[in-house]
Here is the input.
Amino acid sequence: MTSLANRYARAVADAAGADFPTVVEEVKTFHQLMTSHAELTEALTNPTIPLDQKERFLRALCARLKPHPTTTNFLMVVLRHQRMAVLGDIQKALEALLDARSGVVAVEVASAKPLSVRERRALEERLRKLVGGDIRLTYKEAPELLGGVVACVGSTYYDGSIRTQLAEIRERLTRRY
Here is the structure.
């Protein structure tokens, strides 16, 4: 995340007060809307479209979506500062700030194939004990791991992948001979 995204996140957190979780969720929803509709992204980020047209468009969109007033104001500020192209970074900074304020640790889990619900629950339980508190898990597929999982907790990696185990076996065998 950039320092710019962090500055926007801190500013909206201060403005939202107790409604910060609501604003974070609405910004996330708006960003997902932008990423799923290329025309919307183009309309809000294209520098050849006059700012007043973009503002009217965003106001009309917010009138239909009815987000929290702080969310509407925040999106208008981001638009006026021509930062809609980095809304994804800002949204990630907002989530990280919300997690930090809530005592939640973000954990990213990569696996070679999708984990079953039972596997996810077992992994979540072990990670929660490891961290000693609440966690927010995100999963992604990484076929290059061959099997097993890699969990990233903050800046610490827990690598239980087959790829790493094979590499370690290879290194041990080559050291002997």
Q: What stands out?
A: The radius of gyration is 21 Å. Residues 23 and 69 are 9 Å apart (CA to CA). The mean pLDDT is 92. Helices lie at 3-16, 20-36, 38-45, 51-65, 69-80, 87-102, 117-131, 162-176.
